[in-house]
Amino acid sequence: MQRYELEAWLGDDRDLASEQVDELLRTADEIEEQYPDEDDREDREAALTAAYRLMVEAPEDLVAELAAARTAARAAERKALVALRQVAVTRISNGDATEAGFAQQAGVDRMAVRRWLGKR
């Protein structure tokens, strides 16, 4: 990443000294090495945002917020999987869907669907 790109990303209200921008630029380069693929764009963005926030926020608050977000995401994933399981069991049992078709539509592995149906 070039410095001008980082400065554009930071915007005008960055609250960082020049040395901090240099440090964040080094960190951005390390992040790009860790997540080099084009498909990793969101990961790079999340890592760079966290690095910036670590410079301007209390670390304890940032860690607490990120931990809470992770806990909430896990709970949301669990609820979605439980709901998908119920829909799979009902639709497949009624003959409204096939195991493979439901798995593809739901974005899950067919073996997971078979497990939900007690076939594995």
Total DSSP E strands: 0
The end-to-end span amounts to 49 Å
Please outline the major beta sheet.
none
* Overall SS class: mainly alpha
Summed over residues and divided by their number, the pLDDT gives a mean of: 95
The ordered H/E elements are HHHHHH
pLDDT < 50 stretches: none
Number of helical elements: 6
Provide the gyration radius in Å.
22 Å
Shape: elongated
Range of strand content: under 5%
Helix content: over 70%
What tags apply to this protein structure?
mainly alpha
Structure description:
By secondary structure, this protein is mainly α. The protein is built from six helices and no strands. The protein has helices at 3-10, 18-34, 41-56, 59-93, 99-106, 110-116.
Task: Please outline what is shown here.
The protein contains six helices and no strands.
Topology:
Blueprint: H1 3-10, H2 18-34, H3 41-56, H4 59-93, H5 99-106, H6 110-116
Helix pairs in contact: 2-3, 5-6
